[in-house]
User: What shape does this take?
Amino acid sequence: MTNSFTCRNFIDGKWWDSTGKTTLESRNPAYKSEIVATFPRSTIADVNQAVESARQAYKTWRKVPAPARAEYVFLVGELLIQHKEELAQLISREMGKPLTEARGDIQEGIDCAFYSAGEGRRLFGQTTPSEMPNKFAMTVRTPIGVCALITPWNFPIAIPCWKAMPALVCGNTIILKPAEDTPACATKLIEIFAAAGFPPGVVNLLHGVGEEVGKALVEHADVNLVSFTGSSATGSQVGEICGRTHKRVCLEMGGKNAQIVMEDADLELALDGAIWGAFGTTGQRCTATSRLILHRDIKAQFTAMLWERTKKLRLGAGYDADTEIAAIINERQLQRVSEYMDIAREEGANILIGGEVAVEGALKEGYFFKPTILDNVTPQMRVAREEIFGPVVALMEVSSFEDAIAILNDTNYGLSSSIYTRDINRAFAAMRDIEAGITYINGPTIGAEVHLPFGGVKQTGNGHREAGSAAIDTFTEWKTVYVDFSGSLQRAQIDNRD
Assistant: This one.
């Protein structure tokens, strides 16, 4: 057992104790008696201090040339490389995911650092002809201001990096509010940002409860932008507040993602995709494959293949080398997944394998749930429509490509999607007709890359995208500039035609 450590807030370039006296704990989900870290239950006074720090720093940070701002972010990437294994071990202890996935979490942060740093020399505007003589017209990007970044626990390094790095390169200052389950990961990340030498107040960290600290940041008059990743229910509340207070808001929320397997698919390849998509990160991804839409001609064969592979998956602590399925993040989420099994039974679904908490041997010391396959699932069942966020996949049978697309689209969400087929015509029709922000052809629903936009439609998002060059649009405002060098008054939008 490793000793726990104490997390503090980071404000104005210094580590601070909260003005409040209450502390909270994060625990190892594979060994729930182990306290990984204690962290402050921050107060409104802490929020005000952080916002004021970020507001003051913004006045000078926005004037630093973008290529110079990018050099700080590039250095963060280099420091992440140096601390990669240390951070991976911490992620595996505090969040629970297997070490191979934890290393990927950090690599995503590294990739994002180098990509975002490159954008420091590519914050392009546009030039365009004016309709009038001796007049120049162009657009430029300007920063927005103080950005509150509210992040989840499932990618405790990657997602904060997705948000922070482009925001900083664009000239904004940031306040990171991490999830209560992963304060140690956030603390170590901000230690790296601090080591990169950002000016005081440019990067800030606030620990605490989402309903308190997160809500106060969203409502604060001096916060200009909120970037939130989490549930659709919470995201709708964030969006409502930001709409009422005229804040820029970027929402990345839930998913009920589906993988279609057609009768002409490479079934072994589709099986690999289904196992990874459904059970990678213990199903705790917004892009996880929670529905498998199977053509009736291959359903029986594919189901048998899926069952055979699923029963061999090894459960255990993320830091154990043999682990394939790690722990659920906490007791509350474990109970939520269990309750959906009762719902599945009540609705008439058949649990082919799993469907229960794992308590064998050392597993009883943590929050483990057996990988689960639900069969005979129909589109109107709750287990086909609601995000479970655990190692559970629902099988749904179709008789045609058209039915498969219709069922895939029959959801309130629209994040990621997948189809396995050898038919190029079907593949292109799927790319056109699937209602989702991300579509994979012959690949699983998980595996986004940092140089491409990430986000979804419907209740998954509000039109903004993270990652890629699209993130620059999230964290900048457009300014249109006219330069009239005619020496006389020229009146646009007046009928000057003879």
